[in-house]
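Hey, can you fold this one?
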Amino acid sequence: MEKKLVYCITLHQKWVEGDNEGTFIERIVDDFDIAKQLLEGIYKDAKKGRVDKRGIKYTNPKWLNEGHTKIQITSDININGRLHCTHVETYEIHDEWNTNIYSNKPWIIE
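Sure. Predicted structure:
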């Protein structure tokens, strides 16, 4: 397999109403410019107060670094006016060799 740099966008979610949090891989892309465009899209959507198809409203975007590779937003979920949950979400771009991302080796740490 050819070694090629890929870019992972991770999402760290912290529930405001509790102590729960988690980190997930949201997207893997082949090009750094595409990864930055995705974060710019998150910023623009949150700036407009976009509500997605599941009823989650995104607000309060702020860049956490000068290179615009890390952004924080707030997401509010309302279900039938009875249940409410707020997350602070942090998206960040990381680079990685695709041989590590797509490896079939039986270990993680190299």
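The two ends are 17 Å apart (CA to CA). Let me know if you want another pass with a different chain boundary.
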